[in-house]
TrEMBL record, chain A:
Residues 154-188 are annotated as: Disordered. Keywords: Ribonucleoprotein, Ribosomal protein, RNA-binding, rRNA-binding. GO terms for cellular component: cytosolic small ribosomal subunit. CDD domains: S4. Residues 100-171 form the RNA-binding S4 domain. Transmembrane segments: none annotated. GO terms for molecular function: rRNA binding; structural constituent of ribosome. Belongs to the universal ribosomal protein uS4 family. This is 30S ribosomal protein S4, chloroplastic. One of the primary rRNA binding proteins, it binds directly to 16S rRNA where it nucleates assembly of the body of the 30S subunit. The keyword Ribonucleoprotein applies. Pfam families: Ribosomal_S4, S4. The keyword DNA repair does not apply.
From TrEMBL, chain B:
It comes from the Eukaryota. GO terms for cellular component: cytosolic small ribosomal subunit. The lineage of its organism: Eukaryota, Viridiplantae, Streptophyta, Embryophyta, Tracheophyta. Residues 449-458 have a biased composition (Polar residues). PANTHER family: EUKARYOTIC TRANSLATION INITIATION FACTOR 2A (PTHR13227). Pfam families: eIF2A. Belongs to the WD repeat EIF2A family. It comes from Rhynchospora pubera. Keywords: Initiation factor, Protein biosynthesis, Repeat, Translation regulation, WD repeat. This is Eukaryotic translation initiation factor 2A. Residues 217-410 form the Translation initiation factor beta propellor-like domain.
Amino acid sequence: MGRHLRSQGVRMRRSVLMLSLSLLVSMAYVASVSCGRVQYALSRIRNAARELLTLDEKNPKRIFEGEALLRRMKRYGLLDEGQDKLDYVLALTVENFLSRRLQTIVFKRGMAKSIHHARVLIRQRHIRVGRQLVNVPSFMVRVESENHIGFSLTSPFGGGGPGRVKRKNQKAAAKKAAGGDGDEEDEE
Amino acid sequence: MSSVQQSPALEILVREPDCFSIWAGPPFPNSKPTSKLEKTPCTSTKFSEDGSKLLVTKPNGVVSIYNCKSLTEIRSFEVPNLLASTLSPCGTYLQTFQKSSSPQEKNVMVWNVESGVPVYQLLQKNMSKTTWPSIQFSSDESTACRMVTNEIHFFDPKDFSKGIIYKLRVPGVASIGISKAPGSYLAAFVPEAKGMPASVQIYSCNKDLQTQPLARRSFFRCSSVQFHWNKDSFGVLFVAQSDVDKTNQSYYGETKLNYLTVDGLHEGLVSLKKEGPVHDVQWSISGSEFAVVYGFMPAKATIFDKKCKVLVELGEGPYNTIRWNPKGRLLCLAGFGNLPGNMAFWDCSEKRLLGSTKAECSVTSEWSPDGHYFMTATTAPRLQIDNCVKIFHCDGSLYFTKMFDRLYQAEWKPEAPAKFGEINGLVKSLGGLKIEEPRKQAQGLKVAQPSSSKTANVSAPPAKPAAYRPPHAKNAAVVQQELFGGLAASGSGEMSKNALRNKKRREKQREKNAAEASGAGENDN
């Protein structure tokens, strides 16, 4: 999706300016670059749907590619179960896409204190989707994986041992206690 | 009522200012309830969970325990400075909390009801929602435990003199919930602390397996948790509430429904299709499914099985309460509190709406233990006027109502649902009440009329004053439908509401144009 990023740079920035103010405010955490990336993806999908809609109803290309497009949209949670027509694809917005990012979903599910905290958690390797640790805030979450998002097993939040900072502090405290005045002090 | 011998009679406890009385339950001869126990002075009353004993607090700190079968007083306790008292689920023990007059005095006492002897005492400074009752029992009284800072103490419910049998260390624990029956698991909630997320952990009550939690779930944004254990202790549903909504969608904070199974089959959020708070969640009496009412109003209601898969969608409506029928198949969805009191009775196995009615200003609502009747009561001190008791049949038709000057409490005497016969016969006879699905009406466009959608859905509501619809609002039917939601089990595959409304509007516009055009003498299609 983002392969032609650099060449589309100017076009994207202009179209980002066209985004509604409310969208920019609510999605302020998302850099304008990824907003533009999403817009680019959305416009390609809309073009595909529009082109398919010009074909005849029974055209095999329309049926095959239309079904595939709808299946992809439903798989990523952009369309609901009941929306099984190509017209609904044309009604998709940037907000739909942005709300399927791992960062928003981690926040919405209560696993992070704020949306910025969600990004930090993801980047700092605390979140796993299924069994796989995901480090990327713009990971598009599929509907079937949505229920399997949790803290990773090695993370201190998910039952693993204490993290690097805590271990360092514990070591320093133990060292201080042992080498300080020779008293037995158990610091945990 | 089904003719089953040896099923216990129903009883209703009614408490008015200063006294209470017990009525013999429905069916009432001569449409009036007969009194089984005449007015007896009291300040508060409570049945034990299994309905065998009745706890009556009298003024001056006297606590009496009545045997519910004979309605005679079996034991009376003198407890000065009594603040609160509660019975254990099987009625074996009484816990009382007294205001401590001296710092050393142990102010929580556990009495054995049969012998009248205090079996255990402890000191507790404060009483709050999470710390009363101090000693919590499972429903079959096989486990008793108490939460103190960072630890959970277990007692042997058969013999309190042994004291604390073992301790479980859970740093930071704030509230616990014992599983009901069998009482072999304990769910503990540890709130957020210093960057570590809040967590709910399930421990086994068995001492040998207690080193590690059986299951755990961590999350942020939560200040308190309510536990709902399943009947066979398969898993615990918990509602995590927070006072501040970080998503800025609600002033009242947010709630999330999580499900944690003991064997680790499911741990995480229950995926709910609509955003908004979780108004109510209840396990069915058999424990194999649970119903949730969630979302901003009009709320959606869904039934899930115990593996967290969707069983039935019950549509949307102004509901915030769920009451499962003790015999299992029926469900009452109701909107009490600040909602107008709509009640809808559903048959879940056949996915059919049995009937719907209204019970305005109700405060409490409960099914009868045999499942035939549903009683709602308007009580003081929440509502000071219109105190009454209303009893409905399981299809929503009103059976009995009585007004009171002031009513404090009205409840059924609890009985095990297994003691009563099935209600199959009753439900089959309601087969004639088949409700047309509003979905069919929506798709038969020209046929949809406001009158038919209303009469099909509702059995006997009070007459609504017809809303004024200006002449150009020809899409009255669709607007009504949107307002009151689809009361029947809506499947998937409806046209989107907007598309539908536009289509209708276009049709009506075309009709109107045709009428005008032909009126003006021009030719039109």
